[in-house]
Amino acid sequence: MYRSNDRIIAGVCGGIAEQLGWSANRVRLAYVILSILSAAFPGTLVYLVLWFLMPERSR
User: Fold this and answer.
1) Is residue 3 part of a domain?
2) Sorting pLDDT into bands at 50, 70 and 90, what band is 59?
3) What are phi and psi for residue 46, nearest 5 degrees?
4) 8 pLDDT band (50/70/90 cuts)?
5) H/E element, 42
6) Is residue 36 part of a domain?
7) How many domains does the structure of the chain reveal?
8) Is 4 left (phi over 0), alpha (psi -120 to 50) or beta?
9) Whole-model pTM?
10) Among candidates 49, 7, 2, which has minimal Cα distance to 25?
11) Does some domain include residue 42?
Protein backbone atom coordinates (compact mmCIF):
# COMPACT_ATOMS: atom_id res chain seq x y z
CA MET A 1 0.00 0.00 0.00
CA TYR A 2 1.37 3.38 -1.03
CA ARG A 3 0.28 6.98 -0.67
CA SER A 4 -1.43 8.05 -3.86
CA ASN A 5 -0.57 10.80 -6.29
CA ASP A 6 -4.34 11.53 -6.22
CA ARG A 7 -4.02 13.58 -3.06
CA ILE A 8 -5.67 16.37 -1.21
CA ILE A 9 -3.39 16.43 1.85
CA ALA A 10 -0.92 13.54 1.86
CA GLY A 11 -2.47 10.87 -0.37
CA VAL A 12 -3.35 8.47 2.47
CA CYS A 13 -7.06 8.13 1.62
CA GLY A 14 -6.23 7.99 -2.09
CA GLY A 15 -3.75 5.17 -1.47
CA ILE A 16 -6.27 3.21 0.58
CA ALA A 17 -8.85 3.71 -2.17
CA GLU A 18 -6.45 2.46 -4.85
CA GLN A 19 -5.62 -0.62 -2.78
CA LEU A 20 -9.30 -1.45 -2.29
CA GLY A 21 -10.37 -0.47 -5.81
CA TRP A 22 -12.79 2.17 -4.52
CA SER A 23 -13.35 5.82 -5.33
CA ALA A 24 -10.98 8.12 -3.45
CA ASN A 25 -13.86 10.48 -2.67
CA ARG A 26 -15.82 7.67 -1.00
CA VAL A 27 -12.86 6.80 1.22
CA ARG A 28 -12.36 10.47 2.10
CA LEU A 29 -16.03 10.85 2.98
CA ALA A 30 -15.99 7.70 5.12
CA TYR A 31 -12.84 8.95 6.88
CA VAL A 32 -14.42 12.33 7.67
CA ILE A 33 -17.62 10.71 8.97
CA LEU A 34 -15.70 8.25 11.16
CA SER A 35 -13.46 11.03 12.45
CA ILE A 36 -16.42 13.21 13.40
CA LEU A 37 -18.17 10.32 15.12
CA SER A 38 -15.02 9.52 17.11
CA ALA A 39 -14.59 13.12 18.33
CA ALA A 40 -12.00 13.82 15.56
CA PHE A 41 -8.84 13.21 17.63
CA PRO A 42 -8.39 9.45 16.98
CA GLY A 43 -9.06 9.92 13.27
CA THR A 44 -6.50 12.70 13.04
CA LEU A 45 -3.94 10.65 14.94
CA VAL A 46 -4.46 7.62 12.68
CA TYR A 47 -4.12 9.81 9.58
CA LEU A 48 -0.84 11.29 10.84
CA VAL A 49 0.56 7.85 11.67
CA LEU A 50 -0.38 6.53 8.23
CA TRP A 51 1.13 9.64 6.61
CA PHE A 52 4.50 8.83 8.12
CA LEU A 53 4.33 5.03 7.75
CA MET A 54 2.97 4.66 4.22
CA PRO A 55 5.68 5.04 1.58
CA GLU A 56 5.07 7.47 -1.25
CA ARG A 57 4.37 5.97 -4.67
CA SER A 58 7.20 6.67 -7.08
CA ARG A 59 6.12 9.12 -9.76
Assistant:
1) no
2) low
3) -60, -45
4) confident
5) helix 41-53
6) yes
7) 1
8) beta
9) 0.79
10) 7
11) yes
